[in-house]
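Thread: "does anyone have the structure for this chain?"

Original post by V.I.:
We have the sequence but no experimental structure in hand. Need at least a predicted one for the grant figures.
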Amino acid sequence: MPYETINYSVADRIATITVNRPDKLNALNDRVIAELGNAIESAREDADVGGIILTGAGRAFVAGADISELKNHGAVSAKALAQRGQAVFRRYETSPKPTVAAVNGFALGGGCELAMACHIRIASEAAKFGQPEVRLGLIPGYGGTQRLPRLIGKGRAFQLLLTGETIDASEAYRIGLANRVVPANELMAAATTMLHTILANGPLAVAYCIESVNRGCDLTLDEALTLEATAFGLLAATDDKREGTQAFLEKRPPRFTGA
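Reply from O.Q.:
Generated one for you, tokens below.
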């Protein structure tokens, strides 16, 4: 389908979604949110897609919300806006196909929230992260107050959320917000290599790993362990498990089919 604010392409089992408003530093408005939602649905439904890379055009990943649009919202419309964004970001987070954020520059506000909704974050050395909403008299609306403490711990999350400060890629890596930092000219190659490493594994196992982590974080440990054991048992009955174990014993690469 045609897009106005993003680019979408598929190659070698990877869907690349690029937010493409470089003149606005890829700021999120209603159109971008809607198109991000359409793009992740396309990737999730396409049998030729095994994983997704999300990035930005120009010198920003996503530099936050479009303030010119945001300033016109009141209580009711702002809540609806937040819920629409949360629903779209949740589709990236719950995708059974791995999502990798290739953070090429500014990931502020909604951009940081979008990166956090992805399973893995690879940052360029030029990347900047932050949740500056308090400086606008607001709080994050797309999941920042919930995902940030889950990723980096409550104390560090409070510091970033309450000060509104911006941190660089090395600090994001140090506190666990970024999984890896690479030179800018190696970013997309690093994200692609990461995804190819994941896609060499059993697709059902990858999907169940994602589901077990996502659902288990909101359960008690005993409930989460039951969830894990159930997933383990279901996978043990698959063709992929039989192929994976046989390939290991025969010392050859497995040929997974997702069945």
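V.I.: this helps a lot. The longest strand covers residues 6-11.
O.Q.: and The mean pLDDT is 96.
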